[in-house]
Amino acid sequence: SGYRSYDVQANLFANYAAIHGEAQANTFSARAGQSEHQTGLAFDVGDAYHSGYNLQTSIDQFPGVQWMMKHCAEYGFILRYPVDKDSVTGTKGSTYKFRYVGVPHAAYMTENSLCLEEYLEQLKSYTLQQPLDYEAGGKSYRIYYVPAEKSGSTDVSVPTDKEYSISGNNMDGFIVTVEMS
């Protein structure tokens, strides 16, 4: 399950709420407008080859899902809601929801057992003057956080001689990722 439109997400949430109740729906599903599936960066993975398994079989036992869990960071993906991070993410952990964050970020989060919320909070301590230098996938990266100005206009310093990307953290600032080599 990949990208979902607003209407599709609204229907999924409504159906889940009708069956399980709204309180439980808030724990297991996102309301329309709040789903990571609507960003195009998240997806759920299953294993079509083993789709005939008894529904009591945990999805993380399927070989395709096991492979994805083991290799996702190599391709820039993270397990979005680790089962031991419910209290941090506010969402029940699952072994099949993945999100694209980029190779250096995925590798760092996986290596340090961080969920996205923990990583974004940790990044706030890295600045242009004191960045996070990290190696992943045979490349070196420099990563730093720039807080958003309350005025609505923020200057973000970037190198002129290196490849870089700038991402909003959807809260209060920007993450700059510079490919150093």
Give an overview of the whole structure.
With 181 residues, the protein is α+β, with helices and mostly antiparallel strands. 29% of the residues lie in helices and 20% in strands. The chain is built from six helices and seven strands, in the order H-H-E-H-E-H-E-H-H-E-E-E-E. The protein has helices spanning 6-20, 22-28, 63-71, 86-89, 103-111, 116-123; strands at residues 42-44, 77-79, 97-100, 132-136, 139-147, 163-168, 173-179. A four-stranded antiparallel beta sheet has the order 4-5-7-6. Strand 4 (132-136) and strand 5 (139-147) form a beta hairpin. Helix 1 (6-20) crosses helix 2 (22-28). The radius of gyration is 18 Å and the shape is globular.
Write the layout of secondary structure elements.
Elements: H1 6-20, H2 22-28, E1 42-44, H3 63-71, E2 77-79, H4 86-89, E3 97-100, H5 103-111, H6 116-123, E4 132-136, E5 139-147, E6 163-168, E7 173-179
Total number of helices: 6
Strand content: 15-25%
Query: Mean pLDDT, rounded to whole units?
Result: 88
Can you tell me the residue ranges where pLDDT is under 50 for at least 5 consecutive residues?
A: none
- Major sheet characteristics: 4 strands, antiparallel
Distance between the termini: 35 Å
How do you describe this structure in short?
It is built from six helices and seven strands. It has helices spanning 6-20, 22-28, 63-71, 86-89, 103-111, 116-123; strands spanning 42-44, 77-79, 97-100, 132-136, 139-147, 163-168, 173-179.
